[in-house]
């Protein structure tokens, strides 16, 4: 259970004046994250440079991410975005015998863009969700065959918060001898992730959503047994076993997934990521998830009570924080709510109400009430 929510809220200054319910897009700023970014700025201003200290912050962030998903730090690469992570994978599997790539059509579009740009190497196809229902393991089973190389899917949908049972998906994918690559950008920080228990081969996530950080840094998990067999094509000096050998004539990849590091780390983003993940790692993410289930229930009840159309699952077991409510002119309504100090996130035809562990049911009630008033 999330205790002492008032105390938690004190660390997010914006909550004194505003209701922030936009964690599917950007969560509220925690004071520790601001302090950590300022630490980088002061170090630059006062000491001129501190490569050792700056790199250490990024290494600390790598470790905190590894802890959060129950991986070893050697299984994590530092990348700049999820797009970068997926591109690293797409370009390193070209020598595999199997050529079929399956993508869930509710994945974030960038995943499709990356794989489709390599159609000369792969046979790319999509798997959709059933009408009214949501995709289950059997649907994956029916779409995967002995030529399927990799299945890409998201833990939680960016659009409507639909959440999948990854352990079950992994079981089916592995039964057919394919790899499972998960985009966890929308679940990191709000749903427990255990890559070992779930048996995930590859996972990417950025920090800007529920992980309390900023864009510009993301992480790529590849399980060790697999990483050591791959030859990264998106690479650079940080992916080498000794970046500081300054040997331009040889490529000697680092151990494990670290070989997928590329250029100089995004230092300032790494400072933000270290602090953000340290804040979250103080909690049991299952407690955060429970709190968000409760807020989901409140959102669904409030929205239905006011006659709004919910596009998200209405069952809590396959839904994460985000409740998507149908609004024809969603971007406009997002702006109108913002003018009233209520921060939500629009996508196409929905307003996404996406609370985090610092939100209360009063936040939700007020936001839904104002949303209903604007729509009507
Ligand atoms: C699930 C998901 N994946 C990927 C992205 C985009 O990732 P990036 O910009 O880091 O490539 C987003 C951004 O909203 C997202 O929600």
From TrEMBL:
Pfam families: Aminotran_5. This is Aminotransferase class V-fold PLP-dependent enzyme. Transmembrane segments: none annotated. Residues 35-346 form the Aminotransferase class V domain. It comes from the Bacteria. The keyword Transferase applies. InterPro entries: Aminotrans_V_dom, PyrdxlP-dep_Trfase, PyrdxlP-dep_Trfase_major, PyrdxlP-dep_Trfase_small. One of its GO terms (molecular function) is transaminase activity. Keywords: Aminotransferase, Transferase. Coiled coil: none annotated.
């Amino acid at each position: 259970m999330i205790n002492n929510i008032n105390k938690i809220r004190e660390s997010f200054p914006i909550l004194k004046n505003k209701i922030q319910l936009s964690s599917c897009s950007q969560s509220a700023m925690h004071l520790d994250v601001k302090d950590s970014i300022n630490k980088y700025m002061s170090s630059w201003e006062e000491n001129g440079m501190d490569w050792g200290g700056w790199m250490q912050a990024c290494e600390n962030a790598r470790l905190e991410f590894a802890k959060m998903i129950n991986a070893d730090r050697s299984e994590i690469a530092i990348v700049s975005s999820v797009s970068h992570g997926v591109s690293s994978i797409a370009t390193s599997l070209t020598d595999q015998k199997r050529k079929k790539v399956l993508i869930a059509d509710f994945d974030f579009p960038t995943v499709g863009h990356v794989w489709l740009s390599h159609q000369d190497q792969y046979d790319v196809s999509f798997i959709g969700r059933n009408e009214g229902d949501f995709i289950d393991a059997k649907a994956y089973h029916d779409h995967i065959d002995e030529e399927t190389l990799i299945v890409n899917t998201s833990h939680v949908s960016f659009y409507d918060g639909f959440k999948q049972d990854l352990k079950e998906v992994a079981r089916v994918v592995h039964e057919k001898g394919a790899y499972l690559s998960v985009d966890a950008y929308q679940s990191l920080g709000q749903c427990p992730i255990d890559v070992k228990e779930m048996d995930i081969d590859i996972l990417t996530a950025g920090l800007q959503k529920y992980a309390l950080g900023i864009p510009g840094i993301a992480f790529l998990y590849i399980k060790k047994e697999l990483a050591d067999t791959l030859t990264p094509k998106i690479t650079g000096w940080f992916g080498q076993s000794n970046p500081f050998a300054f040997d331009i004539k040889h490529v000697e990849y680092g151990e494990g997934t670290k070989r997928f590091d590329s250029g100089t780390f995004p230092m300032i983003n790494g400072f933000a990521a270290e602090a953000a993940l340290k804040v979250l790692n103080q909690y049991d993410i299952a407690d955060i998830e429970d709190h968000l289930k409760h807020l989901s229930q409140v959102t669904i009840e409030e929205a239905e009570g006011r006659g709004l159309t919910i596009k998200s699952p209405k069952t809590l077991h396959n839904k994460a924080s985000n409740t998507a409510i149908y609004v024809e002119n969603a971007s406009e309504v997002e702006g109108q709510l913002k003018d009233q100090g209520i921060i939500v996130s629009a996508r196409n035809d929905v307003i996404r109400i996406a609370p985090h562990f610092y939100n209360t049911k009063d936040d939700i009630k007020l936001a839904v009430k104002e949303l209903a008033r604007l729509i009507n």
